[in-house]
Write a structure and sequence with these properties.
315 residues, mainly beta, Porin, 1 helix, 14 strands, globular
Length: 315
């Protein structure tokens, strides 16, 4: 049985690798929720009768603090994230509309105060209409993403990179998949998501466009390597996000753009999770490759390793 388990892990990783190898290498933007996803319909303790509508039934928040080490660059030293989700309404246990907001602050070490210099902030706002099926969860929605500079010197105000990326989103999350016939070893494709961008402003002005992002596809898998009841687990989380870019500089002529290149980001995370009925804490090590960190004035790639703690609602 152990042999079959490792065969399944190997097949899963090969599929993810092949998915990425089919794309050539370039820049893809660092988004806040690229490695995790929250769905309020997974909160099954809030039972609603078929056809009945309930308002503001589920809400939750998350936070994360991590420190970059061993693999880092001049723009990354600390990382802070905070976010929240609010279910607006639910119909039965099969449909829900939720609103989300989160923020990521990237901190470098160019400060005499504890080597803590806030460098850039990423915002993400969105709405998702989700449906529950026997095969998983299907969601449709809208996402607004933007990045802004923090603590730039006065003589640097004419520099920097500010962008806005708005997209229509389609996302599918699977039910847990048991990886072997006994024990609590299980896994799932955490989400498959597509973002089609309809509003892109990337640069100091519309005339100074840095990138013309068109579409991105995300694939993430979450595997419980070891689990003890509902108290704790050791997990492995991995994913890849190929992103398509246009062959022009003017996004206003998006319909005339052809796809010029398709390039992926990827990450791997190993962690220990402590759970309660309502929440959980993850202690993790994260290794990732970003072809565009989004922090400096021009696209720059980076291998990054970080160690951190994360709080999540236990949906």
């Amino acid at each position: 049985m152990i042999k079959h388990f490792y065969y399944k892990i190997l097949i899963l990783m090969c599929l993810i690798a092949l998915f990425g190898i089919s794309s050539s290498i370039t820049y893809a933007v660092n988004f806040v929720n690229r490695s995790s996803s929250v769905n309020t319909l997974q909160e099954e303790r809030k039972d609603v009768k078929d056809g009945e509508m309930k308002w503001f039934l589920v809400n939750g928040g998350w936070a994360e603090l991590s420190k970059y080490a061993f693999k880092l660059d001049e723009d990354h030293y600390w990382n802070c994230k905070i976010g929240s989700i609010q279910e607006f309404f639910r119909v039965g246990n099969d449909m829900a509309l939720a609103f989300m907001a989160d923020m990521e602050i990237v901190v470098d070490k160019h400060s005499q105060i504890m080597n803590f210099n806030p460098r850039a902030v990423f915002w993400e706002l969105g709405a998702l209409l989700s449906f529950k099926y026997s095969f998983g969860y299907l969601s449709f929605g809208y996402s607004h993403r933007c990045k802004h500079e923090i603590d730039r010197l006065a003589n640097d105000l004419d520099q920097g990179r500010v962008f806005i990326y708005d997209s229509f989103a389609l996302r599918y999350m699977t039910n847990p998949i048991r990886l072997w016939s006994s024990g609590d070893m299980s896994g799932s494709i955490q989400f498959i998501a597509n973002n089609n961008y309809f509003l892109v402003l990337d640069g100091k002005s519309p005339k100074d466009t840095i990138e013309t992002i068109m579409d991105s596809l995300s694939l993430s898998a979450y595997i419980n390597l070891l689990r003890y009841k509902d108290d704790w687990s050791v997990y492995f989380n991995t994913g890849i996000e190929p992103t398509a870019y246009g062959d022009g500089e003017d996004f206003k002529s998006r319909n005339k753009l052809d796809i010029d290149r398709i390039k992926p980001d990827w990450f791997m995370e190993l962690g220990y999770s402590v759970m309660s009925n309502t929440s959980k804490f993850d202690f993790f090590v994260l290794y990732q490759y970003l072809y565009d960190t989004g922090v400096p004035d021009r696209p720059r790639s980076a291998f990054l390793m970080s160690f951190g703690i994360r709080y999540l609602p236990n949906f």
